[in-house]
């Protein structure tokens, strides 16, 4: 075996172990929330010492940053697949909003890790590294909005009109994010919102449905 082949095998094995660690972290998050994801709990599930875990993640913050990237990748996969499976172009933004809601509503801890925990980490320590952003997160996010722009546009639109369509899609996505934020706050404080989830989803769907019509 050549030195290059040996190095490739070592790197492949390292990546396998990293993915196993992230898989355990996701399971712990699902079962016990953010507090359950510690280096001790993860290493314990894998029968690995904390010292060995440090070879893959230098700190809990580093582990959570990689977990953020993995969870966001899951989100983009689900949204993209759901929208692409829909035959109705007119309902694209409603599909986006509802898919986002369905993906996170029963896993609010995952939502908090992606959209809240990362901000807490980056407030005092480096956030998601540039390589992860460049190679994993940004291409996936661009794919989602490229697909939305293509579905919602037509060949007669100018580049400026297509940009407005893309901005509309982004605004719908951020509105869904805002709804989940409020639901997460309500759950954490045990203070349910006055309006039902379905009523709020219906209102967002109506607003963005009308906005889509005005862009045609």
Architecture overview:
With 216 residues, this protein is mostly helical. It has nine helices and no strands. It folds into two domains: 57 residues, Orthogonal Bundle (Arc Repressor Mutant, subunit A), CATH 1.10.10; 155 residues, Orthogonal Bundle (Tetracycline Repressor, domain 2). α4 packs across α6, α4 packs parallel to α7 and α5 runs parallel beside α8. The chain starts with a helix and ends with a helix. The mean pLDDT is 86.
CATH domain class name of the largest domain: Mainly Alpha
Number of helices: 9
The number of distinct structural domains comes to 2
Give a short account of the largest sheet. none
Rg value: 20 Å
- Please write the string of helix (H) and strand (E) elements: HHHHHHHHH
Portion of residues in beta strands equals under 5%
User: How far do the termini sit from each other?
Assistant: 61 Å
**CATH homologous group name of the largest domain:** Tetracycline Repressor, domain 2
- In percent, how helical is the residue content? over 70%
What would CATH call the architecture of the largest domain? Orthogonal Bundle
Mean of residue pLDDT values: 86
Coarse shape = flat
């Amino acid at each position: 075996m050549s030195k290059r082949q040996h190095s490739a095998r070592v790197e492949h094995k390292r990546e396998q172990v990293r993915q196993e660690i992230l898989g355990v972290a996701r399971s712990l998050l699902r079962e016990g929330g953010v507090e359950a994801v510690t280096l001790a709990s993860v290493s314990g599930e894998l029968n690995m010492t904390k010292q060995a875990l440090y070879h893959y993640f230098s700190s809990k913050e580093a582990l959570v940053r990689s977990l953020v990237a993995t969870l966001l990748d899951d989100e983009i996969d689900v949204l993209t697949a759901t929208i692409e499976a829909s035959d109705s172009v007119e309902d694209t933004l409603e599909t986006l909003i509802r898919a986002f809601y369905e993906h996170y509503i029963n896993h609010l801890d995952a939502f908090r890790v992606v959209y809240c925990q990362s901000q807490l980490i980056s407030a005092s320590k480096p956030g998601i590294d540039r390589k992860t952003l460049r190679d994993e997160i940004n291409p996936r996010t661009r794919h989602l909005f490229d697909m939305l722009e293509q579905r919602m546009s037509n060949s007669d639109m100018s580049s400026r009109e297509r940009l407005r369509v893309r901005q509309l899609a982004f605004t719908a996505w951020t509105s869904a994010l805002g709804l989940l934020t409020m639901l997460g706050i309500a759950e954490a404080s045990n203070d349910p919102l006055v309006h039902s989830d379905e009523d709020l989803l219906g209102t967002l769907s109506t607003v963005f449905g009308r906005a889509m019509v005005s862009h045609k």
